[in-house]
Design a protein that fits this description.
single chain, about 140 residues, three-stranded parallel beta sheet, two-stranded parallel ribbon, 6 helices, about 40% helix
Length: about 140
């Protein structure tokens, strides 16, 4: 996804997250040295400042998603089937986000991290492309 994004858009990719995400973020940085890896290196306030300046946030249904919504950052969010997007996304119809909801064939089974692979890369790419196109069409965002 990082290579696909970098090949198509002029935006920088910044990885964020807590120290629990450091191993995964470091692996992404090794594979794609063009990313800026800030995992485990920013406070919540610093992350909020980054989101205020960001063109878009791609995230799962975690606290950073809620911070992105609160800041007004456009968000592509990936929701597990146990967390209905309609219960966690902004009620404001003008909010700029795309929610992708996982649908598992065996929802009664305990969830695992691998379950999120049920949201395809093509779905995520389409959501990212669509959200960035929508942002580009809004005059108030041109100065952002």
């Amino acid at each position: 996804m990082i290579r696909w994004f970098s090949d198509r858009f002029a935006h920088k990719i910044i990885l964020t997250g807590g120290v629990e995400n450091l191993e995964r973020a470091n692996a992404m940085e090794r594979a794609c040295p063009e990313v800026i890896n800030l995992a485990g290196k920013t406070t919540l306030a610093e992350t909020a400042a980054l989101l205020h300046l960001a063109k878009m946030l791609l995230t799962t249904d975690t606290g950073i998603m809620h911070l992105g919504f609160a800041i007004g950052c456009p968000v592509v969010c990936l929701f597990h089937d146990l967390c209905p997007a309609k219960d966690y996304c902004p009620l404001d119809e003008s909010a700029r986000y795309v929610a992708l909801q996982l649908k598992r064939s065996q929802p009664q089974q305990p969830p695992s991290a691998r379950d999120m692979e049920g949201i395809s890369c093509d779905e995520a790419k389409g959501a990212i492309t669509g959200l960035l196109a929508m942002i580009a069409c809004r005059p108030e965002d041109l100065a952002h």
